Amino acid sequence: MLRGDITAAIRNAVMNELAEVGYGRLSIEAVARRAGVGKTAVYRRWSNKLEMVLEIVSGVAERSVPMPDTGSFATDLQLTMFIVSKALQHRIASQIIPDLMAEAARNPKIAETLHRALRTHQTAVGETIVGQAVARGELPKGTDPGIAVDLMIGPLYWHLAVTRTPIDEDYLEKMANAVTAALKAAPAGPPAP
Amino acid sequence: MLRGDITAAIRNAVMNELAEVGYGRLSIEAVARRAGVGKTAVYRRWSNKLEMVLEIVSGVAERSVPMPDTGSFATDLQLTMFIVSKALQHRIASQIIPDLMAEAARNPKIAETLHRALRTHQTAVGETIVGQAVARGELPKGTDPGIAVDLMIGPLYWHLAVTRTPIDEDYLEKMANAVTAALKAAPAGPPAP
DNA sequence: TGACGTCGAAACGCAACCGTTGCGTCGTCG
DNA sequence: CGACGACGCAACGGTTGCGTTTCGACGTCA
Questions:
Q1: Contact predicate A191/B185, CB 8 Å
Q2: What are the pLDDT digits (tens) for A58-70?
Q3: Touching check for B193 and chain A: CB below 8 Å?
Q4: Taking 90 as the threshold, does the pLDDT of residue B110 lie above it?
Q5: Is the CB of B191 less than 8 angstroms away from the CB of A175?
Q6: Is A161 on the interface with B (CB under 8 A)?
Q7: Measured from the CB, is B41 under 7 Å from any atom of strand D?
Q8: How far is residue B142's CA from residue B177's CA, in Å, rounded to a whole number?
Q9: Tens digits of per-residue pLDDT, A88-128?
Q10: CA nearest A153: which of A136, A169, A175, A132?
Protein backbone atom coordinates (compact mmCIF):
# COMPACT_ATOMS: atom_id res chain seq x y z
CA MET A 1 0.00 0.00 0.00
CA LEU A 2 1.06 3.71 0.19
CA ARG A 3 2.63 4.38 -3.18
CA GLY A 4 6.33 5.16 -2.89
CA ASP A 5 6.48 7.76 -5.63
CA ILE A 6 3.86 9.80 -3.83
CA THR A 7 5.71 9.57 -0.54
CA ALA A 8 8.81 10.78 -2.33
CA ALA A 9 6.94 13.68 -3.91
CA ILE A 10 5.68 14.74 -0.50
CA ARG A 11 9.12 14.49 1.09
CA ASN A 12 10.51 16.62 -1.68
CA ALA A 13 7.72 19.15 -1.37
CA VAL A 14 8.25 19.44 2.37
CA MET A 15 11.93 20.20 1.96
CA ASN A 16 11.28 22.87 -0.63
CA GLU A 17 8.39 24.40 1.22
CA LEU A 18 10.46 24.42 4.38
CA ALA A 19 13.21 26.27 2.55
CA GLU A 20 10.85 28.82 1.07
CA VAL A 21 8.54 29.73 3.92
CA GLY A 22 10.13 28.13 6.99
CA TYR A 23 8.63 25.85 9.60
CA GLY A 24 6.44 28.49 11.16
CA ARG A 25 4.49 29.16 8.00
CA LEU A 26 4.63 25.70 6.52
CA SER A 27 1.14 24.39 5.92
CA ILE A 28 0.08 20.91 5.00
CA GLU A 29 -2.23 22.30 2.38
CA ALA A 30 0.69 23.98 0.65
CA VAL A 31 2.77 20.83 0.85
CA ALA A 32 0.03 18.76 -0.75
CA ARG A 33 -0.54 21.42 -3.38
CA ARG A 34 3.15 21.55 -4.21
CA ALA A 35 3.49 17.79 -4.34
CA GLY A 36 0.48 17.55 -6.65
CA VAL A 37 -1.23 15.36 -4.13
CA GLY A 38 -4.39 15.30 -2.04
CA LYS A 39 -4.26 16.25 1.59
CA THR A 40 -5.56 12.75 2.23
CA ALA A 41 -2.29 11.27 1.03
CA VAL A 42 -0.36 13.37 3.51
CA TYR A 43 -2.55 12.63 6.50
CA ARG A 44 -2.44 8.96 5.68
CA ARG A 45 1.34 9.03 6.28
CA TRP A 46 1.76 11.50 9.12
CA SER A 47 -0.70 12.91 11.58
CA ASN A 48 1.00 16.22 12.29
CA LYS A 49 3.00 18.97 10.74
CA LEU A 50 5.57 18.50 13.49
CA GLU A 51 5.73 14.74 13.15
CA MET A 52 5.98 15.00 9.39
CA VAL A 53 8.77 17.54 9.39
CA LEU A 54 10.77 15.74 12.05
CA GLU A 55 10.54 12.40 10.28
CA ILE A 56 11.51 13.84 6.91
CA VAL A 57 14.27 16.11 8.11
CA SER A 58 15.93 13.55 10.31
CA GLY A 59 15.69 11.11 7.45
CA VAL A 60 17.68 13.49 5.31
CA ALA A 61 20.11 14.34 8.09
CA GLU A 62 20.85 10.69 8.61
CA ARG A 63 22.66 10.48 5.32
CA SER A 64 26.04 10.05 6.88
CA VAL A 65 29.00 12.35 6.78
CA PRO A 66 32.36 10.87 5.81
CA MET A 67 34.86 10.66 8.64
CA PRO A 68 38.20 11.92 7.38
CA ASP A 69 41.37 10.17 8.50
CA THR A 70 44.12 11.35 6.22
CA GLY A 71 46.88 10.92 8.76
CA SER A 72 47.39 14.64 9.25
CA PHE A 73 45.34 16.97 11.36
CA ALA A 74 45.76 19.87 8.96
CA THR A 75 44.29 17.95 6.03
CA ASP A 76 41.62 16.30 8.15
CA LEU A 77 40.58 19.74 9.30
CA GLN A 78 40.61 21.32 5.90
CA LEU A 79 38.62 18.45 4.44
CA THR A 80 36.04 18.65 7.18
CA MET A 81 35.69 22.37 6.81
CA PHE A 82 35.33 21.94 3.08
CA ILE A 83 32.51 19.45 3.52
CA VAL A 84 30.73 21.58 6.09
CA SER A 85 31.06 24.66 3.92
CA LYS A 86 29.59 22.79 0.97
CA ALA A 87 26.64 21.71 3.09
CA LEU A 88 26.08 25.20 4.42
CA GLN A 89 26.13 26.63 0.92
CA HIS A 90 23.59 24.17 -0.40
CA ARG A 91 20.55 26.04 -1.66
CA ILE A 92 18.01 24.21 0.45
CA ALA A 93 20.12 23.30 3.47
CA SER A 94 21.27 26.87 3.93
CA GLN A 95 17.67 27.94 4.34
CA ILE A 96 16.38 25.04 6.37
CA ILE A 97 19.17 24.69 8.89
CA PRO A 98 19.05 28.19 10.41
CA ASP A 99 15.28 28.09 10.35
CA LEU A 100 15.07 24.84 12.28
CA MET A 101 17.81 26.01 14.62
CA ALA A 102 15.71 29.01 15.53
CA GLU A 103 12.61 26.86 15.83
CA ALA A 104 14.48 24.45 18.08
CA ALA A 105 14.94 27.26 20.57
CA ARG A 106 11.26 27.10 21.37
CA ASN A 107 10.22 23.57 20.45
CA PRO A 108 11.85 20.85 22.54
CA LYS A 109 11.02 18.04 20.11
CA ILE A 110 12.73 19.86 17.27
CA ALA A 111 15.66 20.68 19.51
CA GLU A 112 16.05 17.09 20.50
CA THR A 113 15.92 15.75 16.97
CA LEU A 114 18.20 18.44 15.62
CA HIS A 115 20.77 18.14 18.33
CA ARG A 116 20.91 14.40 17.94
CA ALA A 117 21.53 14.78 14.22
CA LEU A 118 24.09 17.48 14.88
CA ARG A 119 25.89 15.53 17.54
CA THR A 120 26.13 12.27 15.68
CA HIS A 121 27.01 13.77 12.35
CA GLN A 122 29.06 16.89 12.92
CA THR A 123 30.31 17.20 16.45
CA ALA A 124 31.36 13.57 16.51
CA VAL A 125 33.47 14.16 13.43
CA GLY A 126 35.24 17.04 15.11
CA GLU A 127 35.84 15.15 18.27
CA THR A 128 37.23 12.18 16.39
CA ILE A 129 39.60 14.30 14.34
CA VAL A 130 40.88 16.01 17.44
CA GLY A 131 41.28 12.70 19.24
CA GLN A 132 43.30 11.28 16.38
CA ALA A 133 45.49 14.38 16.27
CA VAL A 134 46.14 14.20 19.99
CA ALA A 135 47.02 10.53 19.71
CA ARG A 136 49.43 11.35 16.89
CA GLY A 137 51.00 14.08 18.99
CA GLU A 138 49.95 16.83 16.60
CA LEU A 139 47.87 18.55 19.25
CA PRO A 140 48.66 18.98 22.95
CA LYS A 141 47.32 16.35 25.27
CA GLY A 142 44.74 18.38 27.15
CA THR A 143 43.07 19.80 24.04
CA ASP A 144 39.40 20.52 24.83
CA PRO A 145 37.27 18.82 22.16
CA GLY A 146 34.36 21.17 22.82
CA ILE A 147 36.39 24.28 22.16
CA ALA A 148 37.96 22.59 19.17
CA VAL A 149 34.57 21.90 17.60
CA ASP A 150 33.42 25.45 18.28
CA LEU A 151 36.54 26.77 16.59
CA MET A 152 36.19 24.52 13.58
CA ILE A 153 32.51 24.95 12.88
CA GLY A 154 31.60 28.26 14.48
CA PRO A 155 33.38 30.60 12.09
CA LEU A 156 32.05 28.70 9.09
CA TYR A 157 28.51 28.72 10.39
CA TRP A 158 28.69 32.37 11.31
CA HIS A 159 30.08 33.36 7.97
CA LEU A 160 27.86 31.22 5.79
CA ALA A 161 24.59 31.01 7.66
CA VAL A 162 24.53 34.40 9.30
CA THR A 163 26.42 36.95 7.27
CA ARG A 164 25.71 34.86 4.14
CA THR A 165 28.69 35.87 2.09
CA PRO A 166 30.25 33.16 -0.08
CA ILE A 167 33.71 31.84 0.67
CA ASP A 168 36.51 30.62 -1.56
CA GLU A 169 39.32 28.10 -1.29
CA ASP A 170 41.67 30.76 -0.02
CA TYR A 171 39.39 31.62 2.88
CA LEU A 172 39.08 27.98 3.83
CA GLU A 173 42.83 27.49 3.84
CA LYS A 174 43.51 30.60 5.88
CA MET A 175 40.83 29.66 8.35
CA ALA A 176 42.06 26.10 8.66
CA ASN A 177 45.57 27.34 9.37
CA ALA A 178 44.31 29.79 11.94
CA VAL A 179 42.30 27.10 13.70
CA THR A 180 45.26 24.75 13.73
CA ALA A 181 47.41 27.43 15.29
CA ALA A 182 44.71 28.15 17.84
CA LEU A 183 44.48 24.53 18.92
CA LYS A 184 48.21 23.99 19.15
CA ALA A 185 48.39 26.89 21.59
CA ALA A 186 45.17 26.00 23.35
CA PRO A 187 45.97 24.64 26.79
CA ALA A 188 48.53 27.34 27.53
CA GLY A 189 47.77 30.39 29.61
CA PRO A 190 47.90 33.91 28.13
CA PRO A 191 50.27 33.73 25.16
CA ALA A 192 53.66 35.32 25.60
CA PRO A 193 54.04 38.70 23.88
CA MET B 1 -0.81 62.69 20.00
CA LEU B 2 -0.08 58.90 20.16
CA ARG B 3 0.40 58.17 23.82
CA GLY B 4 3.93 57.14 24.65
CA ASP B 5 3.10 54.57 27.29
CA ILE B 6 0.99 52.69 24.80
CA THR B 7 3.70 52.76 22.19
CA ALA B 8 6.08 51.38 24.79
CA ALA B 9 3.64 48.63 25.73
CA ILE B 10 3.35 47.60 22.10
CA ARG B 11 7.11 47.63 21.58
CA ASN B 12 7.50 45.46 24.62
CA ALA B 13 4.77 43.09 23.49
CA VAL B 14 6.33 42.74 20.06
CA MET B 15 9.70 41.78 21.50
CA ASN B 16 8.17 39.18 23.77
CA GLU B 17 5.84 37.80 21.15
CA LEU B 18 8.74 37.63 18.73
CA ALA B 19 10.73 35.65 21.26
CA GLU B 20 7.88 33.25 21.96
CA VAL B 21 6.45 32.45 18.55
CA GLY B 22 8.93 33.92 16.08
CA TYR B 23 8.41 36.28 13.20
CA GLY B 24 6.60 33.81 11.02
CA ARG B 25 3.79 33.22 13.47
CA LEU B 26 3.69 36.68 14.99
CA SER B 27 0.22 38.18 14.59
CA ILE B 28 -0.84 41.72 15.19
CA GLU B 29 -3.87 40.50 17.05
CA ALA B 30 -1.67 38.67 19.51
CA VAL B 31 0.56 41.70 19.93
CA ALA B 32 -2.38 43.94 20.69
CA ARG B 33 -3.85 41.36 23.04
CA ARG B 34 -0.56 41.02 24.88
CA ALA B 35 -0.04 44.76 25.13
CA GLY B 36 -3.57 45.20 26.48
CA VAL B 37 -4.35 47.46 23.58
CA GLY B 38 -6.76 47.65 20.66
CA LYS B 39 -5.63 46.64 17.21
CA THR B 40 -6.46 50.18 16.23
CA ALA B 41 -3.62 51.51 18.32
CA VAL B 42 -1.18 49.28 16.53
CA TYR B 43 -2.36 50.08 13.05
CA ARG B 44 -2.27 53.75 13.87
CA ARG B 45 1.51 53.48 14.37
CA TRP B 46 2.58 50.99 11.75
CA SER B 47 0.85 49.69 8.68
CA ASN B 48 2.51 46.30 8.47
CA LYS B 49 3.77 43.47 10.54
CA LEU B 50 7.05 43.75 8.64
CA GLU B 51 7.33 47.50 9.04
CA MET B 52 6.47 47.27 12.71
CA VAL B 53 8.99 44.56 13.50
CA LEU B 54 11.76 46.22 11.55
CA GLU B 55 11.24 49.57 13.22
CA ILE B 56 11.10 48.11 16.70
CA VAL B 57 13.94 45.67 16.33
CA SER B 58 16.33 48.11 14.73
CA GLY B 59 15.43 50.59 17.43
CA VAL B 60 16.56 48.11 20.03
CA ALA B 61 19.64 47.10 18.07
CA GLU B 62 20.74 50.69 17.81
CA ARG B 63 21.54 50.80 21.49
CA SER B 64 25.22 51.04 20.97
CA VAL B 65 27.88 48.59 21.91
CA PRO B 66 30.91 49.85 23.84
CA MET B 67 34.12 49.91 21.84
CA PRO B 68 36.88 48.46 23.99
CA ASP B 69 40.34 50.02 23.82
CA THR B 70 42.24 48.72 26.80
CA GLY B 71 45.64 48.96 25.18
CA SER B 72 46.06 45.22 24.83
CA PHE B 73 44.55 42.98 22.18
CA ALA B 74 44.11 40.10 24.58
CA THR B 75 41.98 42.12 26.98
CA ASP B 76 40.12 43.91 24.19
CA LEU B 77 39.25 40.52 22.77
CA GLN B 78 38.20 38.97 26.01
CA LEU B 79 36.07 41.97 26.87
CA THR B 80 34.36 41.89 23.50
CA MET B 81 33.69 38.20 23.73
CA PHE B 82 32.31 38.68 27.21
CA ILE B 83 29.89 41.32 25.99
CA VAL B 84 28.79 39.29 23.01
CA SER B 85 28.31 36.22 25.15
CA LYS B 86 26.15 38.21 27.56
CA ALA B 87 24.01 39.44 24.70
CA LEU B 88 23.65 35.96 23.23
CA GLN B 89 22.60 34.56 26.59
CA HIS B 90 19.92 37.18 27.13
CA ARG B 91 16.55 35.48 27.43
CA ILE B 92 14.86 37.45 24.69
CA ALA B 93 17.78 38.21 22.42
CA SER B 94 18.80 34.57 22.28
CA GLN B 95 15.41 33.70 20.83
CA ILE B 96 14.93 36.66 18.54
CA ILE B 97 18.35 36.83 16.94
CA PRO B 98 18.47 33.35 15.42
CA ASP B 99 14.85 33.66 14.39
CA LEU B 100 15.40 36.88 12.51
CA MET B 101 18.62 35.56 11.04
CA ALA B 102 16.70 32.67 9.54
CA GLU B 103 13.96 35.00 8.37
CA ALA B 104 16.53 37.27 6.78
CA ALA B 105 17.51 34.42 4.52
CA ARG B 106 14.24 34.81 2.67
CA ASN B 107 13.20 38.39 3.28
CA PRO B 108 15.54 40.98 1.77
CA LYS B 109 14.21 43.84 3.89
CA ILE B 110 14.89 41.96 7.09
CA ALA B 111 18.29 40.94 5.80
CA GLU B 112 19.17 44.51 4.99
CA THR B 113 18.10 45.87 8.36
CA LEU B 114 19.72 43.07 10.28
CA HIS B 115 22.99 43.20 8.45
CA ARG B 116 23.25 46.91 8.89
CA ALA B 117 22.73 46.54 12.63
CA LEU B 118 25.20 43.69 12.71
CA ARG B 119 27.81 45.50 10.70
CA THR B 120 27.70 48.76 12.59
CA HIS B 121 27.50 47.25 16.02
CA GLN B 122 29.44 44.00 16.03
CA THR B 123 31.62 43.60 13.00
CA ALA B 124 32.87 47.16 13.27
CA VAL B 125 33.97 46.48 16.81
CA GLY B 126 35.96 43.47 15.70
CA GLU B 127 37.57 45.32 12.85
CA THR B 128 38.52 48.20 15.08
CA ILE B 129 40.08 45.97 17.70
CA VAL B 130 42.09 44.14 15.09
CA GLY B 131 43.17 47.41 13.49
CA GLN B 132 44.37 48.73 16.81
CA ALA B 133 46.25 45.52 17.53
CA VAL B 134 47.95 45.62 14.16
CA ALA B 135 48.93 49.25 14.71
CA ARG B 136 50.37 48.29 18.08
CA GLY B 137 52.32 45.46 16.50
CA GLU B 138 50.46 42.81 18.46
CA LEU B 139 49.13 41.18 15.32
CA PRO B 140 50.92 40.65 12.01
CA LYS B 141 50.48 43.33 9.43
CA GLY B 142 48.45 41.43 6.85
CA THR B 143 45.84 40.17 9.34
CA ASP B 144 42.53 39.67 7.54
CA PRO B 145 39.83 41.53 9.51
CA GLY B 146 37.09 39.37 8.01
CA ILE B 147 38.65 36.14 9.19
CA ALA B 148 39.39 37.75 12.53
CA VAL B 149 35.74 38.65 13.07
CA ASP B 150 34.62 35.18 12.06
CA LEU B 151 37.05 33.69 14.56
CA MET B 152 36.00 36.00 17.36
CA ILE B 153 32.25 35.77 16.98
CA GLY B 154 31.66 32.51 15.15
CA PRO B 155 32.51 30.09 17.94
CA LEU B 156 30.49 32.09 20.45
CA TYR B 157 27.47 32.26 18.18
CA TRP B 158 27.68 28.60 17.32
CA HIS B 159 28.02 27.56 20.92
CA LEU B 160 25.40 29.86 22.40
CA ALA B 161 22.82 30.26 19.66
CA VAL B 162 23.03 26.85 18.04
CA THR B 163 24.10 24.22 20.51
CA ARG B 164 22.66 26.36 23.33
CA THR B 165 24.86 25.17 26.14
CA PRO B 166 25.89 27.80 28.69
CA ILE B 167 29.47 28.90 28.98
CA ASP B 168 31.59 29.98 31.92
CA GLU B 169 34.51 32.32 32.50
CA ASP B 170 36.95 29.51 31.90
CA TYR B 171 35.56 28.78 28.48
CA LEU B 172 35.77 32.43 27.51
CA GLU B 173 39.37 32.69 28.58
CA LYS B 174 40.41 29.52 26.78
CA MET B 175 38.60 30.62 23.66
CA ALA B 176 40.10 34.09 23.74
CA ASN B 177 43.57 32.64 24.07
CA ALA B 178 42.95 30.26 21.21
CA VAL B 179 41.70 33.05 18.98
CA THR B 180 44.69 35.21 19.82
CA ALA B 181 47.03 32.40 18.91
CA ALA B 182 45.14 31.82 15.69
CA LEU B 183 45.44 35.44 14.62
CA LYS B 184 49.10 35.74 15.47
CA ALA B 185 49.78 32.83 13.17
CA ALA B 186 47.26 33.86 10.57
CA PRO B 187 49.09 35.13 7.48
CA ALA B 188 51.58 32.28 7.49
CA GLY B 189 51.24 29.23 5.28
CA PRO B 190 50.78 25.74 6.75
CA PRO B 191 52.26 25.88 10.25
CA ALA B 192 55.57 24.14 10.78
CA PRO B 193 55.26 20.80 12.62
C1' DT C 1 -14.53 -10.68 -12.09
C1' DG C 2 -14.82 -8.79 -7.64
C1' DA C 3 -13.01 -6.97 -3.33
C1' DC C 4 -9.77 -3.98 -1.38
C1' DG C 5 -7.09 0.03 -0.61
C1' DT C 6 -4.90 4.15 -2.27
C1' DC C 7 -5.53 8.00 -5.06
C1' DG C 8 -7.28 13.16 -6.22
C1' DA C 9 -10.87 16.28 -5.56
C1' DA C 10 -14.03 18.64 -3.05
C1' DA C 11 -16.49 20.01 0.74
C1' DC C 12 -17.22 20.06 5.65
C1' DG C 13 -17.32 22.98 10.38
C1' DC C 14 -14.11 25.36 13.02
C1' DA C 15 -10.65 28.57 14.28
C1' DA C 16 -7.41 32.33 13.66
C1' DC C 17 -6.04 36.42 11.62
C1' DC C 18 -6.26 40.03 8.24
C1' DG C 19 -7.08 45.23 7.71
C1' DT C 20 -11.09 48.32 8.21
C1' DT C 21 -14.96 50.57 10.32
C1' DG C 22 -18.20 52.59 13.66
C1' DC C 23 -19.16 53.57 18.33
C1' DG C 24 -18.82 55.69 22.86
C1' DT C 25 -15.35 57.23 26.35
C1' DC C 26 -11.79 60.05 28.09
C1' DG C 27 -8.04 63.51 28.45
C1' DT C 28 -6.08 67.57 26.60
C1' DC C 29 -5.74 71.88 24.45
C1' DG C 30 -7.65 76.47 23.42
C1' DC D 1 -16.95 74.63 27.89
C1' DG D 2 -16.38 72.65 23.41
C1' DA D 3 -13.74 70.54 19.78
C1' DC D 4 -10.46 67.21 18.75
C1' DG D 5 -8.06 63.03 18.63
C1' DA D 6 -6.42 58.82 20.59
C1' DC D 7 -8.25 55.13 23.02
C1' DG D 8 -10.90 50.27 23.84
C1' DC D 9 -14.08 47.43 22.03
C1' DA D 10 -16.68 44.92 18.89
C1' DA D 11 -17.95 43.68 14.55
C1' DC D 12 -17.26 43.49 9.67
C1' DG D 13 -16.27 40.41 5.17
C1' DG D 14 -12.58 37.80 3.40
C1' DT D 15 -8.77 34.58 3.53
C1' DT D 16 -6.19 30.66 5.10
C1' DG D 17 -5.39 26.56 7.32
C1' DC D 18 -6.89 22.78 10.23
C1' DG D 19 -8.22 17.73 10.39
C1' DT D 20 -12.16 14.95 8.72
C1' DT D 21 -15.31 13.01 5.56
C1' DT D 22 -17.36 11.54 1.22
C1' DC D 23 -17.10 10.47 -3.47
C1' DG D 24 -15.77 8.18 -7.88
C1' DA D 25 -11.67 6.55 -10.47
C1' DC D 26 -7.99 3.50 -10.78
C1' DG D 27 -4.75 -0.57 -9.90
C1' DT D 28 -3.66 -4.81 -7.85
C1' DC D 29 -4.25 -9.21 -6.17
C1' DA D 30 -6.89 -13.46 -5.85
A1: no
A2: 999 888 778 899 9
A3: yes
A4: yes
A5: no
A6: yes
A7: yes
A8: 20
A9: 999 999 999 999 999 999 999 999 999 988 888 878 888 99
A10: A175
